[in-house]
Amino acid sequence: MKKTALQLLAQRDLARKEKDFKKADSIRREIEVMGYQIVDGVKGVELLRIKELKNQGIKELKKGLVAVFGSGEMSPTGRRIHEYLISDKKPPVKIALLETPAGFEENPRSWYGKLAEMLEVGLAPYQPQIFFVEALTRKGTKSTNDKEILRTLLSAHYIHTGAGSPTYAVKHLKNSLAFKYLYQQNQKGLSLSFASAAAIAIGRFCLPVYEIYKAGANLHWEDGLDFFKRFDLNLTIIPHWNNQEGGAEIDTSCCYMGQKRFNELRKILPGATTILGIDEQTAAVFDPNKKEVLIMGNGEVVVIKGQKADHFSSGENFSFTLLN
Q1: pLDDT value at 8 more than 90
Q2: Which ranges constitute the DSSP H helices of the chain?
Q3: Out of 3.30.450.20, 3.40.50.880, 3.90.79.10, 3.30.930.10, which CATH number does the structure's domain 66-323 have?
């Protein structure tokens, strides 16, 4: 008996829970052949008939781009990447800066304020209107579940989040309304960008950088926000891949872990995952419509699966299938 689209959708959800993203992606394509498009939104997963969308004058529901910075979101290189992400928008462009990852700091606005200044100058032709989304903690007066605080996310043309602590970001964004809004807006065509702490936090597994590098905790991983599961991808993100702040004396590559220590971390990964290492001053830009990743900036991106490592330079792109 031929399965219905709803039955296939249930199978896709099960494949996702089992982290079999290759199977989930195959089921999604089967559903699309049946004339449906899957939309992952705040209210859950929906099936929309492609024919009905076309009758409404909608050719297809295009998702927004997703950029993941290795670093440099405030640099001239970063400016060009931000511009690429909003190049299809007409001025004035509303940009929302989600401050959650820095919510534990004495002045969370410090870094995001500097970024805002750069965007206002660097993106001047787009007449940027910058809004700070002060959702700093899961509970309390500045909650990541407060609709009033988060309403700017729903009217923005572009959303960025970055500086702070990876583990703090996971703790206060996981299963939150703020994180659901990021998914919803991206499904509607809004581009997002993640840098620094947020880049680590959105992976399948989260590297506790500060706990290990600053506080001397034993090597370990924590569960991340697993943002890319909505694209049927299982990714763990490591920014600052080629970091050299330690100079000749201290290896600070692999996000301050150093190559030797990172090799040990790979051995204790809690489960299967594809590692995406992103150099300084570089970004991986995901296009969920074309199912391609474009590399932008000054460095490289490395895709590590098992013992295999594929390197890509700025200007190159590769298919999502490489990540499965």
Answers
A1: no
A2: 5-17, 21-33, 50-55, 76-86, 109-122, 147-155, 166-173, 177-187, 196-201, 209, 259-267
A3: 3.40.50.880
The alpha carbon torsion through 137, 138, 143, 147 (nearest 10 deg) reads: 140
- 290: Cβ contacts below 8 Å, ≥ 6 apart: none
Question: What are the tens digits of pLDDT across the range 47-89?
Answer: 656 555 455 444 455 789 999 999 999 999 999 999 999 999 9
Q: Is 247 exposed, middle or buried (0-12, 13-18, 19+ CB in 10 A)?
A: exposed
Confidence of residue 5 (pLDDT cuts 50, 70, 90): confident
Q: What percent of the chain has pLDDT over 70?
A: 90
Q: What is the mean pLDDT of residues 258-278?
A: 96
| Burial class, 175, CB count within 10 angstroms (exposed 0-12 / middle 13-18 / buried 19+) | exposed
pTM: 0.84
Domain boundaries, the chain: 5-55, 66-323
Residue 304: phi and psi, rounded to 5, are -115, 120
Residue 264 backbone zone (phi > 0: left; psi -120 to 50: alpha; other: beta): alpha
Angle, in degrees to the nearest 10, between helices 147-155 and 177-187: 20
Mean pLDDT over the full length of the chain: 90
